[in-house]
């Protein structure tokens, strides 16, 4: 399987990355390596020349309470599942120097492809995102993510993700 991204490694120039959102920049500068070491998240890098980071995203196992789902989806799930397995696309960002060139879309598709592939091995019925602000919410909405009431989270059913990749 070919992906556009590679796992984060120690040569990647994390300190130079700037997407304009301090929280995401600080995460990449200061925390991500520890999270990866502790298996809290996996981080994938869209790299340029000389180990420059053009963009990145993180994935983790997650779950959502079944009663957070819209009723038309919940009623298709077996009632014995109080929590449903999902994949968390925790963070996704593009460096300002490479913004508005379609890389955000490419990163999102790469993340969805990995999430879909993983779901063959470890059950996951949706990809979840936690949009940082309204801009992020609009970005994810454009690609079909649905807002979950009350939690501030958004989700894309794996059934829809599969339509992107199954021919
Ligand atoms: C959101 C982000 C990843 C977009 O990256 P990008 O490479 O500039 O986006 P692309 O060039 O791939 O644009 C893809 C589409 O999304 C739209 N888009 C991009 N940023 C958007 C935003 N902030 N709000 C709404 N739509 C947006 C673009 O207009 C484009 O649609 P179009 O083809 O119809 O014009 C980037 O702006 C970023 O890193 N922001 C800071 C971090 C962040 O908010 N991440 C998301 C939440 S964790």
Structure characterization notes:
- The protein has 167 residues and is an alpha+beta fold.
- Strand 2 and strand 3 form a beta hairpin.
- The mean pLDDT is 96.
- The radius of gyration is 16 Å and the shape is globular.
- Strands 1-2-3-4-5-7-6 form a 7-stranded mixed β-sheet, with helices on both faces.
- Helix 3 (103-118) packs across helix 5 (158-165).
- The longest helix is centred in the N-terminal third of the chain and has 16 residues, at 22-37.
- 32% of the residues lie in helices and 26% in strands.
- It has one domain: Aminopeptidase, CATH 3.40.630.
- It has helices spanning 22-37, 71-74, 103-118, 134-142, 158-165; strands at 6-7, 42-47, 53-65, 83-94, 126-129, 146-147, 154-157.
- The protein has 5 helices and 7 strands.
- It binds coenzyme A.
- Coenzyme A is lined by residues 19-21, 24, 91-94, 99-105, 131-132, 135-136, 138-139, 142.
- Coenzyme A (COA) binds at residues 19-21, 24, 91-94, 99-105, 131-132, 135-136, 138-139, 142.
Keywords:
alpha+beta; 167 residues; 7-stranded mixed sheet; 7 strands; globular; Aminopeptidase; binds coenzyme A
Any idea of the CATH topology?
A: Aminopeptidase
Strand content: 25-35%
Q: Count helical runs.
A: 5
State the secondary-structure class: alpha+beta
State the order of secondary-structure elements, H for helix, E for strand.
EHEEHEHEHEEH
Coarse shape: globular
Poorly predicted residue ranges: none
Biggest sheet record: 7 strands, mixed
Question: Which hetero compounds are present in the coordinates?
Answer: coenzyme A
CATH architecture: 3-Layer(aba) Sandwich
Q: Give the C-level CATH assignment.
A: Alpha Beta
CATH superfamily: Gcn5-related N-acetyltransferase (GNAT)
Helicity, in percent? 25-40%
Provide the spatial order of strands within the biggest beta sheet.
1-2-3-4-5-7-6
- How many structurally independent domains? 1
Distance between the amino and carboxyl termini:
15 Å
């Amino acid at each position: 399987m070919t992906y556009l991204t590679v796992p984060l490694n120690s040569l990647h120039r994390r300190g130079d990355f700037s997407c304009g959102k301090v929280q995401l920049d600080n995460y990449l500068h200061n925390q991500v390596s520890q999270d990866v070491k502790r298996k809290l998240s996996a981080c994938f890098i869209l790299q340029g020349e000389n180990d420059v980071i053009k963009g990145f995203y993180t994935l983790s196992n997650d779950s959502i309470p079944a009663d957070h789902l819209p009723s038309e989806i919940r009623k298709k799930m077996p009632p014995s599942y109080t929590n449903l397995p999902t994949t968390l696309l925790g963070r996704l960002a593009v460096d300002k120097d490479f913004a508005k060139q379609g890389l955000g879309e490419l990163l999102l598709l790469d993340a969805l492809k990995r999430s879909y592939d993983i779901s063959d091995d470890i059950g996951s019925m949706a990809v979840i995102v936690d949009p940082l602000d309204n801009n992020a919410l609009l970005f994810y909405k454009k690609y079909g993510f649905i807002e979950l009431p009350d939690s501030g989270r958004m989700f894309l059913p794996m059934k829809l993700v599969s339509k992107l990749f199954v021919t």
